[in-house]
Amino acid sequence: MVRVADGDTDALCSLIERWQAPLGSFVYRYVQNREATQELVQETFVRLYEARARYDSKMRFSSWLFKIASNLCKNYYRWRSRHPESLGWDESTCMECGASPNAMQDDEDPAEINSKREEIAVLERAVASMPHPLKVTLLLYYYESQSYKDIAHTLGCSVRGVETRLYRARAWLAKRLSTDPMGSSFGGRNLLAVPGIQL
Amino acid sequence: MRHEIYNQKSVEDCLADWKVELSTDPCLKQKVLRHIAILESSESEGFLGSIPILRWIASRPLASAALACTALMLISVSSFIWEEHRAETRLYAQTQSYFLLINPVAHLDAVSGTGRGFDTEEKPSLIGMLAWMRSSLDLSREQFQALVELHSKYEDRFVALYKDLSEIQAEYQVFEDKRMRNDMIDFMELYDLLRERDTLRASSEQTSRELVSLVLRVLTPEQARSYLALLNGNGSQPMNTPKTSPNNAGA
Hints:
The complex is a heterodimer of chains A (199) and B (251).
Chain A: H1 2-5, H2 9-31, H3 34-50, H4 61-82, H5 91-96, H6 110-128, H7 132-142, H8 148-155, H9 159-179, H10 188-191
Chain B: H1 2-7, H2 11-17, H3 28-45, H4 47-50, H5 52-58, H6 61-101, H7 104-114, H8 130-137, H9 141-181, H10 187-218, H11 221-232
């Protein structure tokens, strides 16, 4: 990033190569739209380059990168809520595009595959309905394996704040999964089994 | 069966099942670099891009906001100063006009000496001139009414005195022109002219003094001080207008 700050575009290409995939999965889980994901990932790297002079070398690069990306996602989400007609977003979109229950093996039962897809669709809806800070905390912690400290840098809050947000994000999910008409089968009772979560 | 499977799950398990497979965009690097190149070329062509300090400021929202605030403050201060200056100029013009209206001698001297005075069409009414005094001296309603009455009584007299003074001045000018063309001087005519002029001047100055002293009676001591300061601020003393004695005439 120091080289990028000096205007080295080769260094930027290296960063793109290294971070394209994790950034893509983070953005996809946030916006749940393939085309938007591509646009936002590209925009993130452009913004990263534009803001290179403001990069604080004390901050971890990943925190800086995800901070830019999460802000862009938030703006996109706000824009989409104001223009619901401009982009289709529904369960089928999610099922077709990015979400892939690839944990399933070819020898798995088709009925089980179908039920897992339903289950993930419910989860996607629950994550989509989550407030921005909770969503970013959840995605960075579970899928990008970021530490509390890095997430705190990304969100601009304290480590304690991250803990609180993570707790609230889990509670939010547990509640949504247990109340979703499609996802009642998750069984709120067992979701409550997550330590510290009470509905 | 399905219900039983899900019932075994926790939130963490649900999250762990959410896998995402996205094919990476092979052209991403080119797209990003092209986008950056477009941005940089538009920046360098633009006004901000041509001046490094402006580009630096534009890239920092805090600095831009501070600069905008400073600019706003400067505009406010300069407009305030400009307004004050305009108000002072207006007040000076109004007091000067008032002073000339209540002092026909000074008015005539101003017209004949500098050419400054009122055009016939532009000449403001004396009563109309009192509006500025009301705000400048912070007059009460009663004081203002008293001053309007007072000035109404004197307005016609000042107009008549100014007319007489102008006529005698014109006659004197004719006499002077005639004297320049002839070697002979009719001293008796000159004496009569100057005596008449001085009588008129004295009468005019007496009338002005009368009005000023009556105005001062209506005003409070503080207002009176301000009133006199405004009159004296014109650079002339209404009480001590220039006077030409017959002894100095023709010298």
